[in-house]
Amino acid sequence: MTKPVLISFKLCPYVQRSVINLLEKNVDYDIKYIDLANKPDWFLKISPFGKVPVLQVGDDVIFESAVINEYLDETSAPALHPKDPIQKAKHRSWTEFASALLVDQYGWTMAKEKSDSDKKRDELLSKFKILEAALPSPSDNTLFFAGSKMHLVDTAFAPFFMRLQFLADHKPELYLLKDFPKIRKWSETLLSLPSVKNSVLPEVPKEYLEFIKAHHSWMGGIL
To answer: What pTM was estimated for this model as a whole?
Structure first.
């Protein structure tokens, strides 16, 4: 396979999904970082939505993280999607659920008023109840979405869990998983993986908190 080039913004959780996938598969790749607040012209020419991630494979361009990850899964071993069509479809459905969590997480951290931030937190907790019920029981002190093996759907949730942990490491009262033992075990399992640990640059935890503060949100005021 032609050496792919991933276009990234350092703090983007959707890019991080693709990086985890590439690392899990030991794919040799290059990565280019851009500033989304000052998008270069060459990037706007290849990204129809003006968003990251974008994957360049030779002269071809692929955009949207779910599509990029499915392409990588079809072209690089080991396969991280189930073979069974119904199970694969279910994993794709839960990947969309992960995206909804990221949207709520962004709303939670960016809300200007405490009441709005609390509302988004409650929406997250409601989704956690649904997710907790959908997870299997842990085995051997580890837990992935489908039990004991990592799949592509796990790469979709890992960036969300990492950002929860960034907040909790700085302010423990912001940790939302204490009442959800299976989700907590799943988060701990994913965050312990080398592919997840190495999917962001070392400065990202600090810059994530600074990003929240810079937007003058309610949460930024308590961090």
So the answer is: 0.96
